[in-house]
Structures are given as structure tokens and as C-alpha cells.
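Hi U.,

Before I forget, here's the chain from the pilot set. I'm dumping it here mostly so it's searchable later in email.
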Amino acid sequence: MPWSSRAALLRDLVLGVLGTAAFLLDLGADLWAAGQYALSGRYLWAALVLALLVLASVALQLFSWIWLRADPAGLHESQPPRRCLALLHFLQLGYLYRCLQGLRQGLSVWQQEVPSEFDLAYADFLSLDISMLRLFETFLETTPQLTLVLAIMLQSGRAEYYQWVSICTSFLGISWALLDYHRALRTCLPSKPLLSLGSSVIYFLWNLLLLWPRVLAVALFSALFPHYVALHFLGLWLVLLLWIWLQGTDFMPDPVSEWLYRATVATILYFAWFNVSEGHTRGRATIHLAFLLSDSVLLAITWVTHSTWLPGEIPLQMWLPVGGVCLLLGLALRLIYYRWLHPSCRWEPDRVDGARSLFPLAQGQLPQNRRMTHLARNFFPKAKDQAALPRKGEVNGVL
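Structure:
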């Protein structure tokens, strides 16, 4: 194997180890914070931290289990029996098992002198599923945890050392998930050189800069009106869920599990942009940005008119200008990315055939993660000369 290919495999393996370590570090920090809240008598805060952890974990295990059952027969020959996998997911260890399985496969490929094409494709298949699950975990657990700890700090008027640890690990987890997701999207591109390191950096920065003002606005509102933030989230979440349903998503293997995906995406859209269907992406992104920006402005105005309710030791008057600067920088970088760095791709019809066309692998057929390819097709538009071509023979996402 050429040295460049072996170095790329080693890099992916190291990134996988770091991603798993970041997940465990963030989990440990949240459990530590929950323990400290309980020891200090703040049982409600501890219960909220644990509730977010449990809800996100259950959703991840459901996604992981549904995908395992929908994968082609004979793909995961080295896995334990289905009953053992079901027990692992019941014990909330399914995602961690996937991370370890991906590391084992990556290490096996790296150790081979000349790895087979199937082993390479299978390693990519596993890593792409892990990237999707990591992104879902980020917006189901890490981002809400970050919002919660900021609201607690604002409401109490002081910051404990374990809260700063939780904030740092949350930002680390969010940053890693965004970078890893973009790397996974790049893996699905028909022509990988179209996506450069610079575009990944810009993509990461504009997502993080737009996410921070949103988290800050929700945290400020939560600190002022902790009893109403759940109603606020539920109201917006229902509107976003309806919007996703109207777009006719077709991502999961069956209609029932599709609602789990829609509910998860609605939670992501509460904080950031996530494209779920092809065509008219610019219009949908503009509508979502205007909707989220309007809501954040209303939350900020509410805070300005009631900011005297919060403890005066925290320099709150500096938070809004910082959030505004982050928002403007994020918008500028987003425009730069979509204007000059977002590639159009020539998607081959036989490369993408939807998540519901999972059949047993034929002899010699290489595994392809159609779930991530489906998302990549939504994220990267088709070239102009290809966009007008009809997709013949396509019924319900199956070519």
C-alpha cells in the first residue's frame, strides 16, 4: 500500500479515537455536573441534566438499532448475535459499541499490507453511520446541555469550576461533530477533490458562529423564564416538525421510524440549519434563517426588558454585542461558503438510491452507506447541466 494511503488510514483511525474520547469526556463532564448539583441540593438542575442525557441516549440507540436491522443481509458478518446487539442497545451501549467496532475495523485495515476493497468500503460504511449518530447526539444532548448550563450560570449569578468544564467539553463535542460530519459528507462526494480543507474550515466557523448567538438567546430566556422555555421549545418544535413533514422526507427504512428522524431534525432546526430534501435549498435556508433570527431577536428583546431580574455580578450587557458580532460574522462566512466554496456535483444515478433500497449484498458487491449519501445529495446540489435531467425509474427513493 502506498505511504499516502496508509497515512490517510492512520489519520482516520486517530480521528476516530479522538472522536470517541471527546464523546466520553463530554458524557463524564455532564455526569459530574449532575452529581455536583445533587450534592449541593439543586435536585431540579441535576434531574434536567440527566433527563437530557437519557432522552438523547434513547434516541441514539433507536437510530442505531433501526439502521442495523435495515442494513443488507450479510454485511455485518463479524458482529455478535442479534440478541447480544439488542441487549447492548437496551443498556444504552449501542453507540459506544459502534465506535469501538469502527475503530477495530479501521485498525484491521491499517494493519493489512494490501487491504481489500470490501474492507476499505466497510470501514467507510461504519464511520459514516458513526458521524451521523454523533451529529444527532450533538443537537439532542450536547447543545441543549450547553444551553442549560449557561442558563443556570446566568440565573445563579456565579460559575462553578465543573460548569466551565461542561461548557468546554460541550464546545469540543459540537466542534468535533460539525467537522466530522463535513468530512463524512466529503467522503460521499462522487469527486472528492471538489471539497478542500479551506471549505471545511469555513463551514465549521459559520455553523459555530451562528449556533452561539442562538444558544445564548435561548439561555437568556431560560434564565429569566425557566417555566416558559419548555412551551417556547414545544411551540417552535411543532412548527418545524410540520415543515419537515410537508417536505416529504424519506430517509428511514419505514414510515414509523421516519417520524423519529423528523422529530430529531426538528430539534436540530431549533438551533441550526439542516437540509432534509433536494431542490430549492436556498429558499428553505432563507426561510429558516429568517424564522430563527426573528425568534432570537424576540428572545433578546425580552431579556433586555427584564434583565434586572438576573444577578448583577455578571457583565450581561456585553453578551448581546458579542452575540451580534458572532451572528454577522457567521452570516458573512455562510455567504462566502455558498457563493465560492460549495461545490456542485455530478451524481451518478446508480450511486444514490435511497435508504429504503437495502437488499442483500451480491457476490463481490461493495457496501455503500446510502443513508449518508442521501444526506450528501441534499447538501451538495447537482451540476446545472445535470439538474434538468429526470431521474428515471425512481419510486419512493429507489432507483
